[in-house]
Amino acid sequence: MISGAHVIVYSQDAEKDRAFIRDVLGFPGVDAGGGWLVFKLPPAEVAVHPTDGPPRHEFYLMCDDLDAQLDEFRAQGVEVTRPVSEQRWGRLTAVRLPSGAELPLYQPLHPVAHSL
């Protein structure tokens, strides 16, 4: 039986991005040994989209109130890297991780499966 999913975010400054996940996002975690932090994620879901190009994977964080979440991030000095765009499936933006990478964030307007 599948008991969970493990997401890996590759980073050019893993230590700073781990601190962001711990301190800014507030995700609890465990030290898997030698400082390798593994964080508990909120409930999750997976979708499979068709593509004409090579297969790829994406990682988004979901929130119930995008505007309130962005206000909270800005108050903590987090850079919002994209203006909020209104998609038919949700409201989309991204924030900057300390490594310089973007972390997409959206407020879904579609039915969600993570609480089934």
Automatic annotation (TrEMBL):
This protein's UniProt keywords: Dioxygenase, Oxidoreductase
Molecular function as annotated in GO: dioxygenase activity
Gene3D superfamilies the record matches: 2,3-Dihydroxybiphenyl 1,2-Dioxygenase, domain 1
Phylogenetic placement of the source organism: Bacteria, Bacillati, Actinomycetota, Actinomycetes, Kitasatosporales
Start and end residues of each VOC domain: 3-108
Residues spanning the signal sequence: none
InterPro entries (UniProt xref): Glyas_Bleomycin-R_OHBP_Dase, Glyas_Fos-R_dOase_dom, VOC_core
Superkingdom as given in the UniProt entry: Bacteria
Protein name: Extradiol dioxygenase
